[in-house]
């Protein structure tokens, strides 16, 4: 008889604590193994620890699963999780799978899985929460739901029919872009592509921007041409240019032709620069205003939620036109300085013209020295005519200076300080 039941969809995202209350990470998935005559057995949890690394937590180390939290013995092996043969991840591989009900009532899709704790302390797969095919022609209608025990269904995934990834995508909705990228890269390759197909363009674009270049190319090339162009449209121009720079000239031109003209124009402008220069690192969409604009106008622009924090730290003053390449670059007004003046103050009266812009041909090392010397988070980039063509932010420089594999390295410094190491 079961003494406790937990649904995986609710368990995913729960915080994991050691016995003294120190937080170790978050649950990202549940690992099970199939058995011949019994329901699958739970062998552990996949936990995301600081540093965005996914590690394995044996179910034997779990002392309690309560509302919104998992309590452990404090012993966690901090090596990156590697899936072994015979292991199945519930959120990643089981949810969304099609099954046949053995009572003859038809097919259904697994939407959630209940884990049940036995009196022996072991955890098994209990009931499955299923959704049957919809009976209405309305695109907004959903099929009826039902529960079934594991023994009451059989798996019948048809060859060539992709496993539904809707539930998995929904579970990723709250992840930050870097966490989403890391989570996607932990999926088996086929499942990764299934999830990528289901993700909205902007979410997939955000995730791609946080991935190593090889993985970016692999995912982009697996998408159809039209979808690939839509994803590039949704990416920041500098990130899109970096990604296209990994492709052949012919393939790059094909995708640029499919992109929105304005977005493609920005990317083409960036592709003319060498990757290791300020022009190759910059984004071409900084906030540009005239000297007659007011503090209130500038603050309204940097409040936009979609704006990257480094780009929101300052606005750049030029002569018209105010789209890159602009008129002559005049100076910078930093966010902190704006806060010291009334809303009606003209930006031209408070701009900082003491820090020079860098040339588009400047090296990445020169840009890094400029940022470090003046404690900046971004630096303006100008062409030969001293027109503003873009801005290099500190994260662009860090991406260039860090090792190519920095996103996936298992450095000891990323391990949590609380809890032991098994």
UniProtKB/TrEMBL annotation:
SMART domains: CBS, MgtE_N
Keyword Glycoprotein: no
Domain called CBS: residue spans: 282-350, 351-408
Keywords: CBS domain
InterPro entries, sorted: CBS_dom, CBS_dom_sf, Mg_transptr_MgtE_intracell_dom, MgtE_N_sf, MgtE_transporter, SH3_actinomycetes
Keyword Cell inner membrane belongs to the record: no
Official protein name in the record: Magnesium transporter MgtE N-terminal domain-containing protein
Organismal lineage: Bacteria, Bacillati, Actinomycetota, Actinomycetes, Micrococcales
């Amino acid at each position: 008889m079961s003494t406790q039941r937990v649904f995986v969809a609710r368990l995913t995202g729960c915080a994991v604590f050691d016995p003294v209350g120190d937080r170790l990470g978050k649950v990202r998935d549940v690992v099970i193994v199939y058995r011949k005559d019994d329901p699958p057995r739970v062998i552990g949890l996949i936990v995301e620890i600081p540093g965005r690394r996914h590690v394995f937590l044996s179910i034997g180390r779990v002392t309690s699963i309560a509302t919104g939290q998992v309590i452990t013995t404090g012993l966690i092996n901090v090596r990156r999780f590697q899936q072994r043969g015979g292991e199945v991840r519930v959120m990643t591989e089981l949810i969304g799978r099609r099954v046949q009900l053995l009572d003859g009532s038809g097919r259904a899709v697994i939407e959630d899985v209940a884990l049940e704790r036995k009196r022996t302390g072991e955890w098994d797969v209990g009931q499955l929460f299923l959704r049957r095919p919809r009976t209405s022609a309305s695109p907004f209608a959903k099929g009826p739901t039902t529960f079934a025990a594991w023994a009451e269904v059989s798996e019948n995934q048809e060859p060539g029919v992709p496993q539904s990834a809707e539930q998995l995508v929904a579970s990723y909705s709250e992840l930050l872009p870097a966490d989403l990228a890391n989570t996607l890269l932990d999926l088996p390759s086929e499942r990764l592509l299934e999830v990528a197909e289901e993700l909205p363009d902007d979410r997939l674009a955000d995730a791609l921007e946080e991935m190593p270049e090889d993985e970016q190319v692999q995912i982009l090339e697996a998408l159809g041409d039209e979808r690939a162009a839509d994803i590039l449209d949704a990416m920041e121009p500098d990130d899109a240019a970096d990604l296209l720079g990994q492709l052949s000239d012919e393939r790059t031109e094909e995708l640029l032709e499919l992109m929105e003209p304005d977005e493609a124009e920005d990317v083409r402008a960036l592709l003319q620069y060498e990757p290791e220069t300020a022009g190759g690192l910059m984004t071409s969409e900084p906030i540009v205003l005239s000297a007659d604009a007011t503090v209130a106008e500038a603050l309204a622009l940097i409040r936009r939620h979609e704006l990257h924090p480094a780009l929101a730290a300052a606005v750049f003053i030029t002569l018209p036109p105010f789209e890159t390449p602009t008129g002559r670059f005049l100076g910078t007004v930093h966010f902190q300085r704006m806060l010291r003046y009334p809303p009606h103050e003209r930006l031209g009266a408070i701009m900082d013209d003491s820090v020079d812009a860098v040339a588009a041909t400047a090296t990445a090392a020169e840009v890094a020295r400029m940022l470090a010397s003046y404690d900046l988070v971004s630096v303006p980039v100008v062409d030969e005519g001293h027109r503003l063509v873009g801005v290099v932010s500190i994260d662009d420089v860090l991406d260039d200076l860090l090792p190519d594999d920095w996103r996936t390295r298992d450095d000891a410094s990323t391990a949590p300080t609380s809890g032991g190491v098994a």
